[in-house]
Design brief:
Blueprint: E1 10-13, E2 19-21, H1 28-39, E3 43-48, H2 54-65, E4 69-74, E5 77-82, E6 95-96, H3 101-111, E7 117-121, H4 132-141, E8 144-148, E9 152-158, E10 167-170, H5 175-185, E11 191-196, H6 203-210, E12 215-220, E13 223-229, E14 238-240, H7 245-257, E15 262-269, H8 276-284, E16 287-296, E17 299-307, E18 316-317, H9 329-337, E19 342-346, H10 358-368, E20 372-375, E21 379-383, E22 395-396, H11 402-414, E23 419-421, H12 434-441, E24 444-447
Parallel strand pairs: 2-15, 3-14, 6-7, 10-11, 18-19, 22-23
Antiparallel strand pairs: 1-23, 1-24, 3-5, 4-5, 7-9, 8-9, 11-13, 12-13, 15-17, 16-17, 19-21, 20-21
This protein binds shikimate-3-phosphate.
The site of shikimate-3-phosphate (S3P) has 11 residues, from helix 5.
Length: 450
């Protein structure tokens, strides 16, 4: 649970070359899914490399509340004794998903086709985010949801006693909505079909297939048509969670902008539905190489090597790439601030309803640090200052958003003067060891309340 603690002010100062190996934590999206699908499977699912960030720990607690036995064996090794599809029991307490939109939306889907009632809440950030995008399709299965105005948490969901299968075209590019519908479809008879116009991360589909569900994906004129056959018997799995490309992005981008740096980030998940940032960085002229490419547990993986890249150029990032790098725009804006020319990001309206309004949060921080920004409802333009030429020297707000906090700290590493944030606490939701890991590479991040 984040956002409840005392703020942790931090300052990141300009630093010398970053060098070494950055072992970033497990993938957040895959970690949530491993716990939830493990909980829906009879028998023991073993997980290694689980992200032990607050978001995922909240999901682990939630799965216990729904009746699964979830055990932490230490060092990222966890096991889940699940209750089977349709086997969730009614929780005896409110489910607090902390800061995690993925956690709450996927869990709502997973319980929506069982005859139980659950009440969900979160921190101030999560309680401000829209849930109707999930509860609307869940209503088609027969579930009912009552929340605050605007479809906000806290919210009580009554699962369908006699769920119907659903055919649903997702109106916004959202893996969370797609996944909620698929997880609900698990306990509906017949075939549940989800159609998405643009490909979003496909970890749910891959993992459902791994657990033995019948799930197919077809590329059609309508888009990707995903068909799940309901009421399968899932078989317990052994899951090795790959390291998170969205967390790797911070070490990679820091190396690209801090003079003289060379950093190796090993064994990063490079599922094509997640790898858009790396394509974009290469188009900008980043010295970024993939080594040791292989497949692990059904997901493509590689070691990333990033070297200082002065002379990167601003580019136009096309809207069709947005879903594959949706969480990476804040850190891309930091690289763009250190490039020459304008980086124009189009089709990024979804950024406005993440843990914060990320366009507004980063624009405010970058402007305060002397960077030229223009933005509209679904576009965002950063005028680069050139390599190492961002003035910095400002105190910025992280707005309960881990990716804003980490992006601003990376900004300070390559600016002319330090960058401070009012609260680094949210970093623990996805990357609890960010500070020591970056310090090990040579970054200078201090807690300024100490
Ligand atoms: C996620 C999907 C994305 C992303 C989030 C994680 C997931 O949200 O921003 O951090 O694990 O499914 P969308 O629902 O917008 O795709």
């Amino acid at each position: 649970m984040s956002g409840h603690g005392t703020p942790i002010p931090m300052m990141s100062s300009p630093c010398g070359p970053l060098s070494g190996v950055a072992e970033v934590p497990g993938d957040k999206s895959i970690s949530h899914r491993a716990l939830i699908l493990g909980a829906l499977t009879v028998g023991e699912t073993r997980i290694t490399g689980l992200l032990e960030g607050e978001d995922v720990l909240d999901t682990a607690r939630a799965m216990r509340a729904f009746g699964a036995e979830v055990t932490d064996h230490g060092g990222g090794a966890w096991s889940v004794h699940g209750v089977g599809v349709g086997g969730f029991r009614e929780p005896g307490q409110v489910i607090d998903c902390g800061n995690s939109g993925t956690g709450v939306r996927l869990i709502m889907g997973a319980m929506a086709t069982s005859p139980i009632v659950a009440t969900f809440t979160g921190d101030a950030s999560l309680n401000a985010r829209p849930m109707a995008r999930v509860t609307d399709p869940l209503a088609l299965f027969g579930a009912r949801a009552v929340g605050r105005s605007g479809g906000r948490l806290p919210m009580t969901v009554t699962g369908a006693a006699d769920p119907l299968p659903v055919r649903y075209a997702v109106p916004v590019p959202s893996a969370q909505v797609k996944s909620a519908v698929l997880l609900a479809g698990l306990n509906a008879p017949g075939q549940t079909v989800v159609i998405e116009r643009e490909a979003t991360r496909d970890h749910t589909e891959r993992m459902l297939a791994g657990f033995g569900a019948q799930v197919t994906t077809e590329e059609t004129d309508e888009g990707r048509v995903i068909t799940l056959t309901g009421q399968p018997e899932l078989a317990p799995q052994t899951i090795a969670v790959p390291r998170d490309p969205s967390s790797a992005a911070f070490a990679v981008c820091a190396a690209l902008i801090v003079p003289g740096s060379e950093v190796l980030v090993p064994a990063i998940g490079l599922n094509p539905t997640r790898a858009g940032l790396f394509t974009t960085l290469r188009e900008m002229g980043a010295d970024l190489t993939f080594e040791n490419e292989h497949v692990e547990g059904g997901e493509p993986v590689a070691d990333l090597r990033a070297r200082y890249s002065p002379g990167m150029k601003g580019i136009e990032v096309p809207p069709h790439r947005a879903a594959s790098m949706i969480d990476e725009y804040p850190i891309l804006s930091v690289v763009a601030a250190n490039a020459d020319g304008v980086t124009l990001m189009r089709g990024v309206g979804e950024l406005r309803i993440k843990e914060s309004d990320r366009i507004e949060a980063m624009s405010e921080g970058l402007r305060a640090c002397g960077v030229g920004i223009e933005a509209g409802e679904d576009w965002w333009a950063v005028t680069g200052c050139g390599a190492g030429a961002v003035p910095g020297g400002a105190l910025c707000a992280s707005r309960l958003d881990h990716r804003i906090a980490m992006s601003l700290l990376v900004l300070g590493m390559a600016a002319r003067a330090e960058v401070s944030i009012d609260d680094g606490g949210p970093v623990a939701t996805s990357f609890p060891l960010f500070e020591p890991l970056m310090a090990g590479l040579g970054a200078r991040i201090e807690r300024t309340d100490a």
